[in-house]
């Protein structure tokens, strides 16, 4: 993110700006190129305990099994072309989410914590080691003279309002 003069802004600089619908949509269904691989037990990740706090290193102690059908962050009911649940022998047909959001148990300076990936600016949760350089949507806010205050941090074009992507 950059200010009007081209000075890089930190994630914390965007704190007063409300999340946008596009950011929420992106967090729940990122394109494959923006998805973070789920860490394995023993891997080191970053962990943000409190909103907007500086992340600290943590070690992955456990990863939620991908076949946990009870978690709507991992699985969804398959629907037909009319958005009705598909059934097989009276039971809903389940499909894996394209961008699953499993729980990780981390050993942190706060003790053991169960958390999901922090996909929104400043959100608590685990972060990949390269989180500061990964692309993610940022809000576009006009400054006092109508110039964008925040712009996309890469050469990638910004998606049109209301469109998925990122």
Any overview of this molecule?
With 166 residues, the protein is mainly β. The chain has a domain at 66-100. It contains one helix and nine strands. It has one helix at residues 21-28; strands spanning 44-48, 56-63, 75-77, 87-88, 91-92, 94-96, 104-108, 111-115, 125-127. The longest helix has 8 residues, at 21-28. It starts with 20 loop residues before the first helix and ends in a 39-residue tail after the last strand. The model is unreliable at 144-166 (pLDDT under 50).
Give the topology, please.
Blueprint lengths: L20 H8 L15 E5 L7 E8 L11 E3 L9 E2 L2 E2 L1 E3 L7 E5 L2 E5 L9 E3 L39
Antiparallel strand pairs: 1-2, 1-9, 2-7, 3-6, 4-5, 7-8
Radius of gyration: 18 Å
H/E element sequence = HEEEEEEEEE
Can you tell me the residue ranges where pLDDT is under 50 for at least 5 consecutive residues? Answer: 144-166
Biggest sheet overview: 5 strands, antiparallel
Give the termini separation.
14 Å
Strand order of the largest sheet: 8-7-2-1-9
How many distinct helices? 1
Let me know the average pLDDT.
83
Class per helix and strand makeup: mainly beta
Q: Can you tell me the overall shape? A: globular
**% residues in beta strands:** 15-25%
What is the β-strand count?
Answer: 9
Give the proportion of residues in helices.
under 10%
């Amino acid at each position: 993110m950059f200010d009007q003069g081209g000075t890089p802004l930190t994630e914390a600089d965007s704190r007063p700006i409300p999340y946008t619908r596009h950011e929420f949509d992106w967090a729940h269904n990122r394109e494959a190129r923006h998805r973070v691989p789920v860490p394995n037990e023993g891997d080191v990740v970053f962990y943000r305990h409190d909103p907007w706090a500086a992340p600290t290193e943590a070690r992955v102690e456990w990863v939620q099994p991908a076949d946990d059908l009870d978690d709507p962050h991992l699985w969804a009911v398959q629907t037909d072309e009319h958005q009705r649940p598909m059934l097989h022998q009276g039971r809903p047909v389940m499909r894996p989410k394209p961008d699953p959001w499993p729980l990780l148990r981390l050993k942190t300076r706060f003790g053991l914590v169960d958390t999901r990936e922090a996909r929104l600016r400043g959100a608590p949760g685990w972060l990949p080691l390269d989180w500061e350089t990964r692309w993610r949507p940022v809000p576009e806010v006009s400054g006092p003279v109508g110039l964008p205050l925040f712009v996309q941090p890469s050469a990638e074009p910004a998606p049109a309002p209301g469109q998925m992507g990122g």
